[in-house]
Every structure is written in C-alpha cells, then in structure tokens.
C-alpha cells in the first residue's frame, strides 16, 4: 500500500542545479572561519543531495520548478530604492526596532533602531561581525549543526547577510523587533536569496520577534527565497515569534525554523502563509531539557494555484514538556496544501503533554488537501493527541447566523474570516493582526464577492 | 517499584504440530513452481494465465519496506509453496476426512462435524490446513439457498465463470509485492457467493492452520455478495511453534453489489514467536480489500490482531457505489517482541459514501504497534463523510505506539474528522480497583475491555467472548 | 476494630507519619482533622495499603490481626473501604459492571454465589435510592465526566453496596455544595451501624454538622496532637488549628 500522492513525473535537473551552485560559490569575501563553515555546509549539502520524494519530509513536493529555473543571485546594483511609504503596509507599528532587507541586502536607511537595552545585540551580520564578531562566530558555529535538511545546509553555504540577535540574561524586550525581507523582482531573470536569522535568548530573557517576507508586486520574474531561522532559548527564556510569508504570486519559498528549548523556556510561534506559488515552512522544535513549553500555530490562506507545505516536528527529548499545535488552512481555487506534523515522544520523556490539531476549510472542488498528523510514542506516561478535520463550514453555525438574518454569503464569509482570525489573534501585535486580516479578506475577496 | 513493570511470558496453547503425512513440493519459486501448482490443482487456462501474469510482475517488484517493522530479509527461495495433507483416497463426505485432521481441528476448538454450536446457531466452516481446504461444513444446506460456500479449488472447477469474473477485481495481481506473490502461488482458500435477495442463514467461517515447518501459506478468499444480500464471515488462525519464521501472505477480496452487506471478522492468533528471543513466529503480510461496487452496499471489517511476529495488514474499502458504507474496527495487541503495522484505507469515489474507522492499539513489552491509514476523498465523492478514531494504550515504558494517518481530500463537500489519543493504565486506576477488592489482573482486563468495547461490540457473539479471553491471556503477567 | 500502633510511614523516602496511635471500636465514628500537609490523607491511604507509601515501623491491627503484609485487595475484602478524595476516572469501564465486579469479588471471598447482572441490578436500584443517586450514573463509565459531587456520591454508593466494616472517608466533603454535602452525609448516616466503624478525614468542621463524630483527633506534622469529643471540632472551627499546634509545641 503505497501512500503517496500521484503527481506528474518531472525531470529534475539536479546536476545542472549543482553546477550552477558551484559557480556561485566563492564570489564573496568572508573571514576564514566563516569560509570554512560555509565549505562544510556545502559539503554537507553535497552529501545529503537534493531532497527526493523518497525522503519522508519531502515526499509530495515537486521541486522541479525550483531546480530547473537557473536562479541567479540578486544583484546589489539593481536593488530598487524604496521609501518608508513603500514599506508602510508591511510595518509592525508597535515595533521600535526594525531591520529591513531589500533583495537580501541590508537597507540601513529603512531600518529603525531605538532604545535598545544594554547588552542587547540586534543587527545585520555585517555590523554584528564588527561589534560582536566572537559572539557571532560562536553562535553560528554552535547553531549550524549537521542537520538532515539539504536546503538548510544550502542556506548556510550561500547566505550573504542576515540578522543576529542576542538578548542578555534577565532582559525583557517589550516592543516587537521586526525583520522585513522585501523582494522586488525587477529583473527578467529568476533570482534567489538566502535570508538567515540567528536568535539567542540568554537565561530568562524575553523577546517578541516578527519576520516577514514580502514580495512586491508585480514581480517581473519568479524568485526563490531559501530562509533559515535559528532560535535558541536558554533556561527560562521566553519568545513570541511570528513568521509571515506573503511573497509574490510567482515566488518560491523554502523556509526552516529551528527552535531549541532549554529548561523552563517557553516559545509561542505563529506561522502565517499567504503568498508564493510554492512554499514550504518546516518548524523543528527540540525540547532539550525539562519543563519547556511550546505553542505553535499556523494559518495558510491560499488561492489560485498556490501550493503550501507545512511540516512540523515536535521532538520531546526530555520529560515534563508541553507542546500544542494548531494549524489551519483555507483553500480556494486550485490551491493545494499539505500538513505533515509529527510528535515524537522519546522513551525517557515521561509526563510529556503534546497535542496537535489540523483543520482545513475547503472552498473549492478544485482544491486539494493532504494531511498527515503523526504520533511516535515511546513512553507510556504521556498525554498525546492529534486531530484533523477537513470540510466545509459547520452547517449548524451557518444556520445560526441565517436565523439571525444574515444572508448565506455573509454568513459564509463571516465564519471563514473567523476561522482565520482564531490564529491571527494570537499574534502579539494589533497592527500586524489588522494588516493580516485585510490581506485575508483580499485573498478571499473573489470567492465571496466576485 | 511500579506494579506496571515486569513482563512475563504467556503460553501459546495452539503451538502443537500434528503428525500428518504431507504432499510437499520442493522449496523455491520459479515459473515452473507456478505451473506445477496450477497443474496439481488441474486448473483451467485462465487460472494459469492469472498466476503467470502475477509471477512475472512480482519478479520485477521490490519487497516494500515503508512499514514500521523490522525483520531479516526473507529468502523467497527457501519457502515451500505447496504443502497438502496426503489424501488417503478421494474424499466424498466429511466422514472421509483424515481422522487425524479432524482431531487437529477439534483440538483447536473447531468442529468439522456439522453439530450445532452451544448457542444453538450453526456455523459453516471451511477448514484450511497448510495449502489446501480439507473440509467445508454445511455446504449442502447452504446450496439449498443458492449460497455457494466451498474451497477455492472447488470453485475454480465448479464455478469458473464466477471466479474468472471476480478474481483480482478488487486486488489486482499487480497491487503490491505480497499480493502479487499470493496471486502467483496461492494454493487454496475459501470461496463464497451469496445470490441476490438472500440473507445467509448462518455465519460462514474459514479457519486457517499452518502445520508444515517451512511452508508459506498463501490462501485466497473471495466473497461475492449479490444485490440485496447479506453475509457475516469469520476468520480464525493458528500455527504451531517453530523456531523459524513462516510467511503468511493471504489475499482476501470482497465484492458487495447493490444494497449488499458483508461483515468480515477476524480473530488472528498466529504464533508470535518466542516471547524472550523473538525467535520464530508468523510474518502475517496480508492484503484484504473490499469493493462496495453497488449503490447502498456496505462492507465492514472487524479485526482482533493478537498474534504473529509481524503483522502487516490494511483491510480496506473502495467505496464506489453511491451511498456505500465502509467500516473498519480494529484491536491490535502487541506484546514482547511483536511488531504490528496495521490500519485501513477508505477510498471514497461514490457520492454520499461514508466510512468509520475505530482503531485501538495496545502495546506491551518491547513491542511496536503502528496504526497506518489513509482516507481519500476523490473529486467525485460529493458529500462523503469519514470519521476516524485511533486510540493507543501503552503498558510499560519499553514499547512504542505510532500513528500514521493520511487524509487526502479533493472535494469541498466531503468531510473528514480524525482524532487520536494515547493513554495508559495508571497506577491510580489499578489501586482504585484493588481498594474495592478486585485483583490487578481482573482490573487490567476490565480496563482493556473498556478500551476496546467499540470494537468488541462489532464482533459476533462467540468471537467477542473469544477475543476478550485472548486479550486477557496475552496480557497475563504484564503487570504484577 | 482498628488499632494503629506507633505508625511511621514515608513516601519517596520522606517521612510523613511520625508515630500515630489510634484505636477505633465498633460503633464509633472518628474524625481526623488537621491542616493541609499534616498527613491526614496519608494515614487513610496507608491503612488501605496504597503502594506509594512504605510503613517503616509500627503496626496496623484490624480485628486483632496485623494487616501490614496484606495487599490492598485483601484489605478491601476484609472489610476496609476508602472513599477517595479524588476518585480516578476509568474510561470505558461501565459503572454498573464495575460495581458488580467489586460486589462479586466480595461474595466469592465470603463463599457466596456471584450475582448475575439482573439480580445485581435489583440490589443496585435499592442502594441508589438509599444514597439518593440518579440511576443514569450507573450506565456511564466509572467517574468519567462526573462532577465533583457526583464522584463523591458514587463513592458512597460503592460503600452502600460493599457494606464495609470500616469506612475511611478521605475529604469526602471537599468540593461539595451544601445540598450535595447534605445528601452525602445522609447516605453516610444511613450506612452507620453498631457493628461498623467510620473514620472521617476532613479539613473543615462542616461535614461534622451532619455526621456526628464520637471522637475528634487533630493531626499535625504526622502526629496526633490532640484528641477530644465533638466539641473539639467546633473549637477548631472557631479558633483554627494554630492554637492546638502552638499548645503542643509549648508542651514539648
């Protein structure tokens, strides 16, 4: 019984892709330690090979469009000059610190820094390497591990600039820190970028972080972002992290978020996917010590032929940790979504409490959803559950609204937006919530008013 | 010290071997073996064609390894593909069945004489011993209702047109590695046809017994329930204890025509191997699938899997007819070093089709137990519904429970609900029972039966009692 | 009936009971009171043989015989019953079946025939009336989804069915509203007979308004620091526990 999605066979020009990569290497000048780190990552990438459908984590994703596209790196000279007004729709108004990247290049003029507490490191890699070179080096070296994700290794091998954040012990950053990765595909050739974010919260530090990748329309060509975010929470640290993907409709995005949780640390992650042609966001959470907690919620609102793959691994390595997941999807037109979420409870991870729920709303008969909620449990004294539902809006709810005088269409849209807002409401920024609600309304506009 | 630890062995009471002279062909598998089996059974040309097609395809296939089970490579040339008790003379009635065979089945609690059961309700039995069907009871009574119930070999001779029409129509020869192997070499099995507008007056059953060491068992069951008819089918299995592993690669095909209902229940208790070393035991690699061909048809699978070293089995339903209904109720218990990877596939094609999946996995000892399932709502499956519930219970901290469902939906009006949970028997629960004067073993049994009750209530009366008893036996001494 | 002699017990190597002496005779109701963490519930659990606790010294005699070597089910069959403070939920196990299992275990132990489900149902209906319990309870899973009051009533129902010689009620009044408390207390009173005995473990005095104890003992830090008649309970209600404990410390 081969459980696999059928899809068209594609010729993956793997060799061409690799040749292409090897030509891209070594154009940049890095310090020796970084050059060797990058070389190691490239070796790792070579050893892993491109993900194939034989690998569980990639089994139903068709990478051919990415591999065949012959992407070129963004050219700094052709970077468009954007104003604050241009980026205003994507700005978290509560954020007092913001780092803005355009086509992968750090834009100091658009970025904002105010009132950072003593000892905090918040900056792009270039400036951080000047002020906190040793810390950046040790963080990068410790976080870049021998993972099994080829695209993660590829990011390490090829990233140019990125963001480095380190919050000292017992320091609480109240206002959100926002990182904007804007892409303006203003060239006729496909281009790619490798955003990287490194975050360390030292013991009992607290941070509210938002990363947003935004594609400016219209995009003249397709582009590919391969993004990696490493989050390392030391003892008692607490993080709220919001990942927002609203790339252009012809963009590809493969993103990976690694979250390491040490003793009594807490993380609250929200992953929002609204754009792109094909995107994947993998979230790998590891409980490295006891009493960690992680809440993870996701929302994708998809239209046209958008394809989204959400892949989560909640790895309970130690006892007494709690994790909760809620992933929601709204699918219109020919959109396709896949959720593949695994909870792993290791043998000694007694008293783990892990739950997961995946809910998908189908608005179209041409949409397609695949969901794989998985439990791998090796300890007996645990609480684990998962659930998945796929379907339309609840008839009872529709009837209730109808009985209050709402038209069928209004009732539908009210409930659909409500379905999305349950996740959006978790984002710790009212301005971002409002922007996203508007975006969701826009995305589904045709389905209700067209 | 936890009372939930300490795991001991249980006895396998069906582990004896009968001393019966057998007609055994040499080990190994070539095209000649396939031809030899077909010739021994004096089969018509279409059967040989079917077998050869399957064999040629099988040769090009690779053994699947995606299941969550682990076993040494199987040497397919080291298996006996045909073993049959030597007939003393051509048998004409039950009286002529080798008395040693009757004794064997008696010892297994299966009566091959047409006596009524204690409950007063008769049950028809097709008894399969190694590669062949040795006796089928109540055949004549059933035929009076137009019901054909006989060995597969007999069906090939007597009802070739039915066999040719339906064989491989649910599980094609190319379906999977083990189904292809079975299609090439299957030696016997049960055949059943219920004519239109007929409710089968008694439960039908097949009892499988592997006796010869080194023999694989590749039986084939084909049940066709014509329109407006109904049948309940039971299957039981045991094997002697041998140190070597034995392969059981059966195929069961069910076809339900318009408004027909088939209920298929299995209590599987193959030898599980040595509790300590894991040596021996049956590899139970079985393909079971039903096709709800007609509108309003209904297929229900109920299984209680307690035996085998490895179970690899996904009784499935193809819901083709509009308003057809598929059900899967399963209890899979693994203890010691057993491995089970079992579940179901519900393929919704017709409109307004519904399916229900209730799976209860119990892991004890060092065993691993996985639920693997798929619910697929095809584009045509307007208003289709599925509800799935997968619960796992872990006893002790050296076992594993995994859940691997896949849900695929291509129709917006379809609705799928899946839920899964994990629980354990807590020390507090056991103490509560004990404070009321109830012993730990009895408490365990009450809790396990409570855990499995949604499945047990689907089993026909005597099977439910048997299943309850079996679970108790299998878990004996898992707490102490 | 029950004789506890210099009982010391620990859990996870921490000593909780530090020399308890208590004598309970037929026809007596004893109340064990004390602040949180004083060892009240531990005492109850040690008497019924909870495996998490280890008796390090001293003895428990029940009807003249030491029961320390007996496992929990033997003690239950001997006639010792505990109404749990937090009755555990047992999903899937039907309450009526559970009660019958327990009842028949006792019948078998006493050399009597087991009751079949129909016979047992007659008994059950009668006992339901006795404890004023809604008959719908018995067809649900044991304690599953029961409210706090329902769980406590279910404990009393079990007590009514098993008719124990010695009943230990562990904080049976906690979490009950006034109506439920009265109903539970009525049940308890109906079950009290001259040949039986009861130990009420409680933090508050309010249950004792309904069930009149013959003796009240105050437990503190694993010892009985004061014993008296039912007036002691009222005094405790007025003045709290501190004065007893202070008095005790002063005496030491």
Could you provide a short overview of the structure?
The complex is a heterotrimer of chains A (450), B (480) and C (252). Chain A has a domain at 76-289.
Description:
The complex is a heterotrimer of chains A (450), B (480) and C (252). Chain A has 11 helices and 21 strands. With 450 residues, chain A is an alpha/beta fold. Chain A has a domain at 76-289. In chain A, helix 2 packs antiparallel against helix 7 (150-158), helix 5 (125-131) crosses helix 6 (133-143) and helix 8 (395-403) crosses helix 9 (408-424). Chain B has 480 residues and is of the alpha/beta class. Chain B has one domain (22-474). Helix content of chain B is 21%, strand content 35%. Chain B has helices at 31-40, 45-59, 99-107, 139-144, 152-158, 160-166, 177-185, 427-435, 440-456, 461-474; strands spanning 22-24, 83-85, 123-129, 132-136, 148-151, 188-194, 203-209, 219-225, 230-238, 245-248, 251-256, 261-268, 281-292, 298-305, 310-313, 316-319, 325-334, 339-348, 354-364, 368-377, 385-395, 400-409, 415-424. In chain B, strands 5, 6, 8, 10, 11, 13, 15, 16, 18, 20 and 22 form an 11-stranded mixed sheet that branches. In chain B, helix 5 packs across helix 6. The radius of gyration of chain B is 22 Å and the shape is globular. Chain C has a single domain, classed as P-loop containing nucleotide triphosphate hydrolases (Rossmann fold), CATH 3.40.50.300. Chain C has helices at 40-48, 72-78, 95-109, 117-130, 148-162, 178-191, 230-239, 242-251, and strands spanning 2-11, 14-24, 29-33, 53-62, 65-66, 80-83, 90-94, 141-142, 166-170, 197-202, 215-220, 223-228. The model of chain C has no long low-confidence stretch (mean pLDDT 89). Chain C has a 6-stranded mixed sheet, sandwiched between helices. A 4-stranded antiparallel sheet of chain C has the order 2-1-4-5. Chain C contains 8 helices and 12 strands. Chain C is α/β, with parallel strands linked by helices. Chain B binds chain C through residues 3, 423, 426-429, 431-440, 442, 446-447, 449-453, and chain C through 48-52, 71-73, 75-77, 81-82, 84, 87-88, 90-94, 97-98, 101-102, 105-106, 109, 141-142, 158, 162.
């Amino acid at each position: 019984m081969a459980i696999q999605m059928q899809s068209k066979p594609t010729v993956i020009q793997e060799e061409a892709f690799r040749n292409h990569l090897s030509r891209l290497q070594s154009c940049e000048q890095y310090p020796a330690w970084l050059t060797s780190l990058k070389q190691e990552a490239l070796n790792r990438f070579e050893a892993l090979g491109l993900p194939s459908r034989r690998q569980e984590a990639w089994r139903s994703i068709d990478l051919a469009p990415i591999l065949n596209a012959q992407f070129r790196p963004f050219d700094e000279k052709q970077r468009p000059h954007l104003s604050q007004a241009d980026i205003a729709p994507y700005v978290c108004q509560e954020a007092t610190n913001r780092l803005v990247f355009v086509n992968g290049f750090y834009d100091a003029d658009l970025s904002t820094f105010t009132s950072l507490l003593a000892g905090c490191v918040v900056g792009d890699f270039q400036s951080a390497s000047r002020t906190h070179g040793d810390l950046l080096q040790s963080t990068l070296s410790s976080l870049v591990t021998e993972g099994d994700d080829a695209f993660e290794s590829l990011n390490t091998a090829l990233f140019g600039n990125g963001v480095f954040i380190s919050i000292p012990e017992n320091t609480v950053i109240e206002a959100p820190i926002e990182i904007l990765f804007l892409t303006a595909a203003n060239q006729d050739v496909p281009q790619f970028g490798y955003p990287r974010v490194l975050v360390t919260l030292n013991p009992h530090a607290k941070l509210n972080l938002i990363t947003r990748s935004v594609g400016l329309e219209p995009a003249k060509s397709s582009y590919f972002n391969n993004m990696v975010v490493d989050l390392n929470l030391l003892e008692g640290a607490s993080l709220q992290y919001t990942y927002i993907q609203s790339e252009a409709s012809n963009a590809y995005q493969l993103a990976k978020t690694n979250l390491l949780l040490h003793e009594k640390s807490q993380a609250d992650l929200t992953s929002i996917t609204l754009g792109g042609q094909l995107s994947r966001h993998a979230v790998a959470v590891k409980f490295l010590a006891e009493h960690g907690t992680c809440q993870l919620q996701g929302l994708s609102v998809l239209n046209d032929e958008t394809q989204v793959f959400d892949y989560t691994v909640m790895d309970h390595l130690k006892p007494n940790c709690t994790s909760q997941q809620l992933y929601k999807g709204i699918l219109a037109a020919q959109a396709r979504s896949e959720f593949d979420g695994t909870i792993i409870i290791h043998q000694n991870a007694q008293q783990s409490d892990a739950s997961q729920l995946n809910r998908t709303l189908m608005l179209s008969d041409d949409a397609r959803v695949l969901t794989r909620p998985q439990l791998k449990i090796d300890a007996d004294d645990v609480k684990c559950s998962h659930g998945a539902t796929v379907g339309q809006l609840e008839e009872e709810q529709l009837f209730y609204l109808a009985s209050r005088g709402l038209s069928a269409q209004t009732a539908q849209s009210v409930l659909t937006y409500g379905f999305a807002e349950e996740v959006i409401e978790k984002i710790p920024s009212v301005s971002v919530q409002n922007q996203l609600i508007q975006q969701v309304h826009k995305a589904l506009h045709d389905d209700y008013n067209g | 010290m936890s009372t939930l630890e300490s795991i001991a062995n249980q006895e396998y009471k069906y582990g004896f071997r009968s001393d019966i002279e057998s007609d055994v062909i040499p080990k190994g598998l070539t095209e000649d073996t396939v031809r030899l089996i077909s010739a021994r059974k004096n089969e018509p040309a279409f059967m040989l064609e079917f077998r050869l097609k399957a064999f040629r395809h099988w040769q090009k296939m690779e053994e699947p390894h995606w299941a969550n089970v682990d076993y040494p490579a199987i040497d397919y040339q080291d298996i006996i593909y045909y073993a049959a008790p030597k007939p003393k003379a051509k048998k004409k009635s039950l009286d002529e069945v080798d008395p040693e065979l009757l004794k064997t089945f008696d010892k297994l609690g299966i009566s091959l004489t047409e006596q009524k059961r204690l409950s007063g309700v008769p049950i028809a039995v097709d008894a399969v011993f190694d590669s062949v069907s040795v006796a089928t009871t109540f055949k004549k009574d059933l035929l009076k209702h137009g019901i054909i119930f006989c060995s597969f070999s007999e069906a090939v001779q007597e009802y070739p047109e039915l066999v040719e029409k339906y064989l491989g129509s649910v599980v094609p020869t190319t379906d999977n590695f083990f189904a292809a192997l079975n299609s090439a070499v299957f030696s016997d099995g049960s055949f059943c046809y219920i004519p239109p507008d007929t409710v089968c007056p008694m439960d039908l059953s097949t009892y499988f017994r592997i006796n010869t060491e080194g023999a694989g068992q590749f039986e084939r069951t084909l049940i066709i329930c014509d329109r407006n008819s109904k049948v309940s089918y039971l299957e039981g299995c045991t094997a002697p204890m041998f140190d070597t592993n034995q392969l059981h690669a059966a195929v069961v095909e069910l076809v339900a025509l318009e408004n027909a209902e088939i209920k298929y229940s299995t209590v599987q208790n193959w030898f599980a191997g040595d509790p300590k070393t894991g040596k021996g035991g049956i590899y139970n690699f079985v393909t079971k699938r039903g096709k709800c061909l007609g509108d309003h048809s209904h297929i229900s699978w109920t299984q209680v899997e307690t035996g085998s070293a490895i179970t690899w089995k996904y009784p499935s339903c193809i819901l083709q007819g509009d308003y057809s209904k598929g059900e899967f109720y399963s209890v899979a218990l693994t203890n010691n070093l057993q491995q089970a990877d079992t579940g179901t596939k519900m393929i919704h094609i017709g409109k307004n089709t519904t399916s229900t999946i209730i799976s209860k996995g119990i892991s004890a000892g060092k065993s691993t137990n996985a639920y693997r399932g798929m619910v697929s709502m095809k584009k045509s499956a307007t208003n289709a519904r599925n509800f799935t519930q997968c619960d796992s219970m872990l006893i002790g901290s050296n076992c594993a429970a995994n859940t691997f469902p896949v849900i695929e939906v291509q129709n917006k009006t379809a609705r799928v609900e899946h839920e899964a949970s994990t629980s354990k028997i807590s020390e507090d629960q056991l103490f509560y029972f004990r404070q009321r004067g109830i012993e730990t073993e009895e408490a365990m049994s009450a809790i396990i039966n409570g855990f499995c009750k949604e499945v047990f209530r689907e089993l026909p009366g005597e099977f439910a009692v048997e299943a309850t008893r079996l679970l108790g036996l299998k878990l004996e001494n898992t707490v102490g | 009936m029950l004789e506890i002699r210099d009982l010391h017990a620990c859990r996870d190597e921490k000593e909780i009971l530090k020399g308890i002496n208590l004598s309970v005779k037929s026809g007596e109701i004893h109340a064990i009171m004390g602040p949180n963490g004083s060892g009240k519930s531990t005492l109850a659990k040690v008497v019924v043989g909870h495996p998490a606790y280890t008796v390090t010294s001293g003895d428990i005699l029940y009807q003249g015989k030491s029961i320390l070597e007996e496992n929990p089910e033997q003690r239950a069959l001997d006639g010792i019953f505990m109404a749990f403070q937090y009755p555990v939920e047992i999903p899937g196990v039907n309450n009526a079946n559970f009660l019958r299992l327990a009842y028949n275990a006792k019948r078998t132990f006493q050399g009597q025939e087991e009751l079949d489900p129909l016979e047992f149902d007659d008994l059950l209906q009668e006992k339901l009336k006795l404890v004023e319990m809604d008959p719908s309870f018995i067809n649900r899973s044991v304690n599953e989804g029961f409210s706090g009051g329902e769980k406590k009533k279910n404990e009393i129902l079990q007590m009514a069915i098993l008719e124990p010689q010695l009943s230990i009620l562990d904080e049976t009044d906690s979490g009950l509203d006034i109506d439920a408390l009265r109903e539970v207390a009525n049940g308890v009173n109906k079950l009290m007979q001259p040949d039986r005995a009861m130990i009420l473990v409680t933090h508050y005095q309010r249950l004792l308004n309904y069930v009149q104890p013959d003796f009240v003992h105050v437990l503190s830090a694993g010892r009985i620091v004061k014993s008296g008649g039912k007036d002691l309970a009222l005094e405790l209600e007025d003045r709290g526990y501190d004065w007893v404990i202070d008095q005790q410390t002063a005496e030491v």
